[in-house]
Design goal:
The protein is built from 14 helices and two strands; from the N terminus they run H-H-H-H-H-H-E-H-H-H-H-H-H-E-H-H. By secondary structure, the chain is mainly alpha-helical. The termini are far apart. Belongs to the drug/metabolite transporter (DMT) superfamily. Plant drug/metabolite exporter (P-DME) (TC 2.A.7.4) family.
């Protein structure tokens, strides 16, 4: 259950992420600025998270220090950069390319997590080997879905063209922005994990994260967006996208990710990025009439195998730690047991 709960939660978070990419792409294609979008969505998330965090952490809240607040600001800075790079890349390309490029996040995160000793890497332990192999396999499956098509399995309706998911305006520039998004996102996850070790109050952390992202967005928007019409929420797709992003993107998705990060570690959370392309492909076939290719089916199967390896490796580490704890307790009890008779005899 320690793995199953975060697993279900992260799948829900990735579903919300794919929906966010689709609605944000549609809003920006209607002329909405990516900076304005980040500002409105994080401001709305602050309004949702402030009462929720105070209620959820109404007792036993860790004290706020300047060091912790500074960490929140750094987290907000990296989060703002990740959102700015990500939405700019989506605006220049499509949600499909964005989910494909985000497959680089697990690799970057794994390297940083081992560097900062947030993840165990013992080449003699089967759990560690399974996590490494699973990460590589999942990334390979995601890239298979991206670059290999193969034969058609399910055809789109005649004359149907999915402009939203297949628009190709500037793939090179978009890929550069999305690549920077991957690097910053990996660093964001590591910083978040380090802060949670000192301040394990998830919703309060997410509130301050959204708060500082909103503050940074205001500064950038006042400089970059001089046209007053860029601040409006018309047409209706703009406020719909902001409402979805504020509730299901910044509040729900980041909150769920933080909750899972506190319980499983950064590598487990980042491993769910490749599943985004599976969800995006399924949404494309079911809702937008995309064509299903053999490569998508093979890639999805490979990703599932990679996920199983990572989860199995994580479960092995949990079992080993639990066994060590039980064994340590038993040894401690056995060491104390001989002292009791002698104490009674002396009395």
């Amino acid at each position: 259950m320690k793995v199953a709960g975060p697993f279900v939660a992260m799948v829900m978070a990735e579903c919300a992420q794919v929906g966010l990419m689709i609605v944000s792409k549609e809003a920006m294609s209607q002329g909405m600025s990516s900076f304005i979008f980040v500002l409105y969505s994080n401001s709305l998330a602050c309004l949702v998270l402030l009462p929720a965090s105070l209620i959820y952490h109404r007792s036993g809240r860790p004290p706020l220090t300047w060091s912790i607040i500074s960490g929140f600001f750094v987290l907000g800075l990296f989060g703002f950069l990740a959102q700015a790079f990500g939405y700019t890349g989506i605006n220049l390309s499509s949600p499909t390319l964005a989910t494909a490029i985000l497959n680089l996040v697990p690799g970057f995160t794994f390297i940083l997590a081992v560097t900062f000793r947030l993840e165990k890497l013992d080449w003699k332990a089967t759990g560690s080997i399974a996590k490494v192999v699973g990460t590589v396999v999942s990334m390979a499956g995601a890239f298979t879905m991206t670059f290999y098509k193969g034969t058609h399995l399910v055809h789109s309706p005649p004359g149907f063209t999915n402009q939203l998911l297949s628009q190709q305006s500037d793939w090179v520039l978009a890929g550069s922005f999305l690549g920077m998004d991957c690097v910053v996102t990996s660093a964001f996850v590591i910083i978040q994990a380090l802060i949670l070790k000192k301040y394990p109050a998830e919703l309060i952390l997410v509130f301050f994260y959204c708060f500082f992202v909103a503050i940074l967005s205001i500064i950038v928007c006042l400089v970059a967006e001089r046209d007053i019409t860029a601040w409006t929420l018309k047409p209706s797709i703009r406020w719909t996208a902001v409402l979805y992003s504020g509730i299901f993107g910044s509040a729900f998705q980041v909150g769920i990710g933080t909750w899972c990060l506190c319980r499983t570690g950064p590598v487990f959370v980042s491993m769910f990025k490749p599943i985004g392309i599976v969800i995006a492909a399924a949404v494309g076939v079911i809702c937008f009439g995309d064509t299903l290719y053999l490569g998508s089916l093979i890639g999805a199967a490979v990703i599932v195998v990679g996920f199983y390896l990572v989860i199995w490796g994580k479960a092995q580490e949990v079992d080993v730690d639990g066994a060590r704890t039980v064994r340590g307790t038993s040894e401690s009890s056995s060491q104390k047991a001989p002292l009791l008779p002698s104490y009674q005899e002396e009395n």
